[in-house]
Design brief:
This protein is α/β, with parallel strands linked by helices. The protein contains 8 helices and 7 strands, in the order αβαβαβαβαβαβααβ. The chain has a 7-stranded parallel beta sheet with strand order 3-2-1-4-5-6-7, with helices on both faces. Bound molecules: nicotinamide-adenine-dinucleotide.
């Protein structure tokens, strides 16, 4: 296969796939840096998928749909607040009905209140865990029976699941739990030919990443792989791969998208 044919194959690797992305919005005005969900939706649509973009903020989801339409792709927006379990089944149903089934699910939604142990309350603990962990369990539970063989689920986790540097125990715990949830979903999905994998993100330059840096300026003071943060587009490429048939024998893995940070590969100035 020539180089040109190879890049054409990658560009259409999700042709006709029906994919729901949860946490798919974009903030007003700001296209750069892109949020992970927005960049993933665009990358999937550019690879030929029809994408249902779900977010608690309908206008944010509609902005992503607008970006996809501008790029010549097909997408629809859905409003759902997944911290409320009662809204999850309806969201999955609406996406599956509108797309005519589901081949892929990207659980990108995540929140962080950056509260240290001393400031934790049952309420702020639940607020993070309900979105970052409970929602993922129930999204997967309701999506699995709707998914076609060859389908793929991608969980979006963080290197915070492996180290406590952010003094953010609810977030760190919620992301660590995704590893076990992903394995459970992979086991349940296997008889139906459905895979589940996790991307473990390092420092990514998104609006959420910038907010974290504002709250904790030392976040970027540490040595970084290649001397920079990752981009949402680099995250999107990994998600696209895991959703595609190119990853057909890759199941229940945690793929770091961190430039090598968790392996200690950092550039010291
Ligand atoms: N940016 C980073 O450095 C970084 C690092 C590691 C992991 N991550 C993970 O990447 C994912 C996306 O991060 P981002 O930086 O693009 O953040 P973001 O805040 O820009 O995106 C999250 C999206 O989820 C939506 N959302 C939040 N709560 C919701 C709810 N209850 N129901 C439905 N939608 C809801 C938001 O409206 C937003 O559109 C998160 O899971 C985050 O933990 C980010």
């Amino acid at each position: 296969m020539s180089q040109v044919q190879k890049s054409e194959a990658a560009a259409s690797c999700l042709e006709g796939r029906r994919i729901l992305v949860v946490g798919a919005g974009r903030s007003p005005g700001a296209r750069q840096p892109a949020a992970n969900g927005n960049a993933a939706c665009l990358a999937l649509a550019r690879a030929g998928a029809r994408v249902a973009c779900a977010d608690r903020d309908l206008e944010a989801a509609e902005r992503t749909v607008g970006d996809i339409s501008e790029a010549g792709g097909q997408a629809m927006a859905l409003q759902a607040d997944v911290s409320d379990v009662a809204q999850i089944e309806g969201m999955i149903d609406r996406a599956a009905e509108a797309l005519g089934g589901l081949d892929g699910l990207v659980l990108n939604v995540g929140v962080s209140h950056r509260t240290p142990l001393s400031g934790l309350t049952p309420e702020n603990w639940d607020a993070v865990l309900n979105v970052n962990t409970r929602a993922h369990v129930f999204c997967a539970k309701y999506a699995l029976p709707r998914m076609a063989p060859g389908g793929s689920i991608v969980f979006v986790s963080s290197t915070a699941s492996r180290r406590p540097g952010g003094r953010n125990p609810a977030y760190e715990t919620s992301k660590a739990a995704l590893s076990a949830i992903c394995r459970a979903v992979a086991l349940e999905g296997q008889p139906a030919g459905i895979r589940a994998n996790t991307v473990v993100l390092g420092l990514i330059d998104t609006p959420m990443g910038r907010a974290a840096t504002q709250a904790r300026p030392d976040r970027l003071a540490q040595p970084m792989p290649f001397g920079r943060q990752g981009t949402a587009e680099e995250v999107a490429a990994a998600i696209r791969f895991l959703l595609s048939d190119e990853a057909s024998y890759i199941n229940a893995v945690e793929l770091p998208v961190d430039g090598g940070m968790s392996a200690g590969i950092v550039l010291r100035k």
